[in-house]
Automatic annotation (TrEMBL):
Domain Glucose-6-phosphate dehydrogenase NAD-binding: 9-185
Organism: Conexibacter woesei (strain DSM 14684 / CCUG 47730 / CIP 108061 / JCM 11494 / NBRC 100937 / ID131577)
A GO CC term assigned to this protein in UniProt: cytosol
Origin superkingdom: Bacteria
InterPro entries: G6P_DH, G6P_DH_AS, G6P_DH_C, G6P_DH_NAD-bd, NAD(P)-bd_dom_sf
Biological process (GO), any one: glucose metabolic process
Gene3D superfamilies hit by this protein: Dihydrodipicolinate Reductase, domain 2, NAD(P)-binding Rossmann-like Domain
Keywords: Carbohydrate metabolism, Glucose metabolism, NADP, Oxidoreductase
Catalytic activity: D-glucose 6-phosphate + NADP(+) = 6-phospho-D-glucono-1,5-lactone + NADPH + H(+)
Protein name: Glucose-6-phosphate 1-dehydrogenase
Active site feature: H238 (proton acceptor)
Length: 472
């Protein structure tokens, strides 16, 4: 089924996310035949654009961040797509936006309204209020970008403001990591097979690693990032959401309420973070980036140990880390199994020398799953080596036409499907868990760009080791 005809209002339409993901993603959905039979996209932001310059910006964006099957070389579909784009500058006042939206709706002969708020937390409440004041909230859906607030109080205020204008059913709090194929593959692997779930617990699992290093710098996002930092930008949102997929109990059905219930139980069981179990880093040169304060205390790297106080996970540490300008990019979840109870292999056989067995999910678009374990090296005697088995969507031939996370989620929002979105309760609980860290952050440690982060991350995880860079 296709979505109903839609007017999509894009707040922050000239920003980094819109250029990098949203505009290329909407074009890709259009070319994949997944957009509504007719639609309009009304961009708005504080920048002084008009229809023509916004179309030019969109064209540049899709050229600079092309999605397969969405390059502008297909001239006729680009023309068809771009004539549906228009722009209303924020300075023109709320009435001007409402007029444009009404005009777009009458062109479509009605249709649904979807507001996409790609704006920083500090601006979100004002936009929500404006939508209420101008009546643009009526019957509309609203997609809220992360980070949702900056702490518990601001998230509660934002939820309060939203609920003053929208019913919960109208609200879609996006976390694009949940739209990644590989994140959903965690659910498929755990709950569609009999093989894995029986060993998915403290009896068999020693620890869990979630690692998302990025080589990217802050680039032109300095002014956004300064008020955010790695913890709010990545951990309280993406990494904890992914952790919930790993840790949750089997939901009664694959439907939004059941999934949300199980995820929220995980969040409730998360112990409030102990600042002594957190490492914060800042890459050398960050303070020289545009928009960054010369004495900035914002972290560009964070590593931490989280614990889930429940029957299944008691005593199993979850180690999380992410950072900018690191040695390599990766997005992995690795499950490390216990060592066997009795060491019968002779010293020098190689057993244990490459760390424990791991099952590793790669959250990249190819959605790889690998299992690394010990096997015998062929030949005389008993020498052990780490071997690895891999599954990837590419290799199975299932990998064509993968929707990028944002594409998948924008489509879900147009269809009214909440399954892969987060909820007010869950988010507020995560801010509660974060409170001790936010109140008393450990000192920043510098790290050189192109490295794996500050050295004390190794003490944090000892006697275990980070999974990246992959050795075996
Ligand atoms: C965004 C963060 O939410 O996720 C960025 O704001 C980060 O800082 C990005 O780079 C990572 O997403 P992806 O899909 O490239 O892994």
């Amino acid at each position: 089924a296709l979505p109903d005809p839609h007017v999509i209002v894009l707040f922050g339409a000239t920003g980094d996310l819109a250029r990098r993901k949203l505009l290329p993603g909407l074009l890709r959905l259009y070319r994949a035949g997944l957009m509504p039979p007719d639609f309009r996209i009304v961009g708005t932001s504080l920048d002084p654009f008009d229809d023509a310059s916004f179309r030019a910006l969109a064209r540049e964006a899709v050229e600079q961040f092309p999605r397969s099957g969405s390059g502008v070389d297909d001239a006729s579909s680009w023309a068809e797509f771009s004539r549906r784009l228009s722009f209303v500058p924020g300075t023109a006042g709320p009435g001007a936006l409402a007029d444009r939206v009404h005009a777009a709706r009458s062109e479509l002969g009605g249709g649904r309204l979807l507001h996409y708020l790609s704006v920083p937390p500090s601006a979100a409440r004002a936009v929500v209020r404006e939508l209420g004041d101008t009546g643009l909230s009526e019957g509309a859906r609203i997609v809220m970008e992360k980070p949702f607030g900056t702490d518990l109080a601001s998230a509660q205020e934002l939820n309060g403001a939203l609920h003053g204008v929208f019913a919960e059913q109208q609200i879609f709090r996006i976390d694009h990591f949940l739209g990644k194929e590989a994140a959903q593959n965690i659910l498929a692997l755990r709950f569609a097979n009999g093989l894995f779930e029986p060993i998915w617990n403290r009896q068999h699992i020693d620890h869990v690693l979630i690692e998302v290093p990025e080589t990217l710098s802050i680039g032109m996002r300095g002014s956004f990032y300064e008020g955010t930092g790695a913890y709010r930008d990545m951990v309280v949102t993406h990494l904890f959401q992914v952790l919930a997929f790993v840790a949750m109990e089997p939901p009664t059905a694959l439907e939004p309420r059941a999934i949300t219930e199980e995820k929220n139980k995980v969040f409730r069981s998360l112990k409030p973070l102990d600042p002594a179990c957190v490492v914060r880093g800042q890459y050398d040169g960050y303070r020289d980036e545009p928009g960054v304060a010369a004495d900035s205390e914002t972290e560009t790297y964070v590593a931490l140990r989280a614990e889930i106080d429940n029957w299944r996970w008691s005593g199993v540490p979850f180690y999380l880390r992410t950072g900018k300008r690191m040695a390599d990019s990766g997005r992995i979840i690795s499950i490390a199994y216990h060592e066997p109870p009795h060491g019968m292999f002779p010293a020098g056989s190689g057993v244990g020398s490459f760390g424990p067995d791991h099952m590793t999910f790669d959250l990249d678009e190819a959605s790889r799953l690998s299992l690394s374990f010990y096997g015998k090296r062929p030949g005389p005697g008993m020498r052990l080596e780490k071997a690895s088995m891999q599954f990837s969507l590419e290799e199975t031939g299932l990998g064509h036409d993968v929707l990028e996370a944002y594409e998948r989620l924008i489509h879900d929002a147009m269809m009214g499907d909440h399954t892969l979105f987060t909820t007010a309760d869950g988010i507020e609980r995560l801010w509660e868990v974060s409170a001790p860290l936010l109140a008393d952050p450990p000192p920043l440690e510098p790290y050189p760009p192109g490295s794996w982060g500050p050295p004390s991350q190794d003490e944090l995880i000892a006697p275990h080791r980070w999974r990246l860079p992959f050795e075996r």
